[in-house]
Design goal:
Blueprint lengths: L11 E4 L19 E2 L5 E2 L17 E2 L4 H20 L4 H12 L5 H13 L19 H12 L18 H15 L7 H5 L1 H14 L5 H16 L1 H9 L3 H14 L9 E4 L1 H20 L10
Length: 303
Amino acid sequence: MRIVRPAIMMATAVLGAAATSPCNSQTREAPPVQARGNDGAHESDVVVRGYRDRKKPKDRVSIPATASAVTNRTKFGYSERLAKCVLKGDPTTLYKLRVVLDGEVNTWRTRQAQDWLVRSNITCSENVALLSFSGAPVQADESAAFIRALDGDFTGTPPLIESSPLGRSIFDRGALVIAALHQYMPDLTLTRAEVDDPIIQARFNMRELARNRFRTAVDRRYFEAAVCMVHAEPELAVKLAMSSGVARMSDAQELLIDRTHACVGNARRVKVEPTQFRIYIADAVYRWAVAVRNTASLVPTSA
């Protein structure tokens, strides 16, 4: 199976590993502000413009307001503090970071390295008890819908993305990926020409098929959808991964889903939890960047 173009067929997609979804609080584009002269006539030399990317929403993305969305943002906030400390670390810390970001996902080695990073930087948090989260179990109806949509599997117990409090936290790992992108590739760009290059695609597939073979079913399907989205809209995906501010991220996220709905089987509605969605997109962006640059890792051997 090639990861570049995963075969995903569905009518309604649910992209949410642990919980769905935050308030759909978008900042709308401010209308032009025009100054008036003494005679009351409009002048056009003063214009205030918003940053709105998503000009014509297609009403495809569903982001219901739930308490879990706030919880996930809180989890990720503490994980961001951890990541800032990790990136100031010594060569041993950076070695462990490379294992987490570039090693085989969901193996003992990568879990142990992530656990070590968390415990070694435990004092970075104001509240140690909240520094790292295992995450709530996947809601049965949400994960089952996701599995049915992607795999046609209507049976079995939905697997959990996170089952231990430290070494498997997707919030900790996601914060480490995003912090590494900001620290080591602050001017990162990915272009359509790069991700469409057959040599780069072959390199990407060769590495990622091996790296992701131990992901759980839900985790792997989510990652494949993210990989497809980054491949289809690399510039926009980089913007989402590197952005800051809830309103700006929400806008980029919904525009990305609008433009890449083929990656979720042309679903009429796509239900996402924004914090986790950004984590998966950032992970896929990082992997494409590694393939484009033909390097083993974006993390250096010394600070």
